[in-house]
Amino acid sequence: MITEEKITTSVEETEELGATVASQVRPGVVVAMHGELGSGKTTFMHGVAKQLGITGRVISPTFILMRSYVINSSEGQYLDRLYHLDLYRLSSEREIEEIGVLDLINDPKNLVFIEWAEKMGSLLPVKRIDVSFEYVDEKKRKITIRRK
Question: What is this structure's pTM?
Answer without folding.
Answer: 0.89
